[in-house]
Amino acid sequence: MTRLVLLLCLLVPAAKAQVFGGGPIGGSNGAPSNFPGPQSYRDSATGITFYVESDGLHVAAISKEGKILSVRDPFHDAKLSDYRTHNPQIVSVGKGSWWVNGVRRRDVPAILIRFNSSQFGALKISDGEFQFEGQD
Question: Would you list the DSSP string of the chain?
C-alpha cells in the first residue's frame, strides 16, 4: 500500500503554488486567465467598435466614422473588488445582453465583458454604463 501511494505521488503532477502580493491568486476554478493584450469587437447593428486598450482596463467606443464616443473603465466604474487577482484585466469582449430584474432587455444593446478574475458583466452600447453580472 505504501508503494502504491508513493507511486501515485510521483505520477500525479503537483499543483502550482498560488502567488500572493501582486500576482494571480486563483481559486476553486483554477488560476485566472492571462490577459491576451489589446482586442476589439465591432457591433454589427450600430457599427460601433469597442477597443480594449493595452492596459486591459479601459474600453473605448469608436463610431463608424472613427470618432471616440466614450472611454470607460468598467471594473472601477462598477466599484468592483479584487477577486482572484490583484490586477483584473479584460480578457474577452463580445455580443452581450442587458438584464433588468432578471429579464433580458432586447431593446437595450449591450456587449459582454469578461475579466481575468472570472468576473463579468454587460456594457450598454448607448452610454457605456457597466452592469456587473457575476463571477465564477
Answer: -HHHHHHHHHHSPPPPPPP-SSSB--BTTBSPPPP--SEEEE-TTT--EEEE-TTSS-EEEE-TTS-EEEEE-HHHHTTPPP-SBSS--EEEEEEEEEEETTEEEEEEEEEEEEETTSEEEEEETTT--EEEEEE-
